[in-house]
Design goal:
- The protein has eight helices and ten strands.
- The protein has an eight-stranded parallel β-barrel with strand order 1-2-5-6-7-8-9-10, surrounded by five helices.
- α8 links the parallel β9 and β10.
Length: about 220
Amino acid sequence: MVVLVAHRGASGYAPENTLQAFRKALMLNADIIELDVRATKDKNIVVIHDEEISRVAFGKGFVRDMTLEELLQIPTKSKERILTLDQVINLLKGRCIIKIDIKERGFEKRVVETLQEHNLVSSAIITSALPPTLKRIKHLDSDIIVEYGGLEKYEPIDEILDKAFRVKAHLIAPHYSITTKSLIDTCHEHGFKLHVWTVNDKELAKKLALIGADAITTDYPDMRI
């Protein structure tokens, strides 16, 4: 049976990457909950997708240029505070697999240390579109499961596989628009599982499940397919 991954929590029902979204995903019994991380100016890891805050907050500026204290003082459109990775882990650990999407380079060591501190190395997935980040993660702790993610534009299958092998990935995550049965089958033949993102149409999700996708990332983790 295909696994559904809660995209930024149950973000179809609640503002993305918020306590409300993560709690809703848990209520819906999501097996895997995905979240995005970036680092603040003072090297704290926060759960936010965009590098610039204006889409989710009443302010402007880059996360990397603000301290955690400065970031938390800015009102958000969801009326919830931006979360740290530790806060989300404390909510989710032991209740699901946590998939952490690292959006930029430079704080891989802190992410690995956080997983180790929480004894989550065996129950987390690190995903990224940045091959150097994934290589760094595997160098820091070879037991961490990594996903070569963020594949959005068509590439020859052999090039995708080559990059996945180079970063010692376990999973490959293409956008649904470039996912074919040939891609899925070839990934499986080479030992990779395939997680497709981000699918909110039930009929499309069913089609992807039928052609062999191992997991489907969705804003609606209660989707019945």
